Amino acid sequence: KAGVTQTPRYLIKTRGQQVTLSCSPISGHRSVSWYQQTPGQGLQFLFEYFSETQRNKGNFPGRFSGRQFSNSRSEMNVSTLELGDSALYLCASSLSGTQVGELFFGEGSRLTVL
Amino acid sequence: QQQVKQSPQSLIVQKGGISIINCAYENTAFDYFPWYQQFPGKGPALLIAIRPDVSEKKEGRFTISFNKSAKQFSLHIMDSQPGDSATYFCAASQGAQKLVFGQGTRLTINP
């Protein structure tokens, strides 16, 4: 069974640009979550989608957005990039519908903002 | 209230020893407490998890001890091996697919 796939794995952008990251969950998983990982702030929850609906949202500015498609694949977008957005962005998928369960993480997309 | 505090930040243990990592939380509504293990270049992977209705859960060499009254939980790794060298994260959740993570502990097992 294929794991969670994130693309691209690495990317470099400049301030003010926007970026779109993609996540393909494990087959059959309908919940997709996004986390930001930085050395200073650790792992922080961005948002979670289930059946194309955003179910939970973290404390990030509106520049961070996401969506989920009917095949459960998800994208997140960051607009007007700032230096502080440099981070590893992790996608995780889960079978769980209502109660929290095991999250399966991808290897992440490492974003560098210059 | 949403924070999970993890200690120590780094830990060095001799092969065969016991590794202990501690976490504390404030939100009494948290009802799911997992531990994740992360190797360099990889995403975190679930190691073991506990719900507050039990005080201890053991899976192989890994044990979670949970103290509801003290709002603390800890991970014990028995007979630590060099392959256990990784970063460990505790986390907590309140009935939703939204984990609050601790800051992480970098564990090094010396051979």
Folded structure, characterized:
The complex is a heterodimer of chains A (114) and B (111). By secondary structure, chain A is mainly beta. Chain A has strands spanning 5-7, 10-13, 19-24, 31-38, 42-50, 53-57, 64-68, 74-78, 87-94, 104-105, 109-113. In chain A, strands 2, 4, 5, 6, 9, 10 and 11 form a seven-stranded mixed β-sheet that branches. Chain A is globular and about 40 Å long. The mean pLDDT of chain A is 94. Chain B has 111 residues and is an all-beta fold. Helices cover 0% and strands 53% of the residues of chain B. Chain B is built from no helices and eleven strands. Chain B has strands at residues 4-7, 10-14, 19-25, 33-38, 45-50, 56-59, 62-67, 72-77, 86-92, 100-101, 105-110. In chain B, the strands form two sheets. In chain B, strands 2, 4, 5, 9, 10 and 11 form a six-stranded mixed β-sheet that branches. In chain B, a hairpin with a 2-residue loop joins strand 6 and strand 7. Chain B is globular, with a radius of gyration of 13 Å. The termini of chain B are far apart. The model of chain B has no long low-confidence stretch (mean pLDDT 95).
Number of helical segments with 4 or more residues of chain B: 0
**CA-to-CA gap between the ends of chain B?**
39 Å
Residue share in helix of chain A: under 10%
Helix content of chain B: under 10%
Task: List low-confidence stretches of chain B.
Answer: none
Identify the quaternary structure here: heterodimer
Q: Which spans of chain A of ≥5 residues are poorly predicted at pLDDT below 50?
A: none
Number of strands of chain B: 11
Mean pLDDT of chain B: 95
Strand percentage of chain B, roughly? over 45%
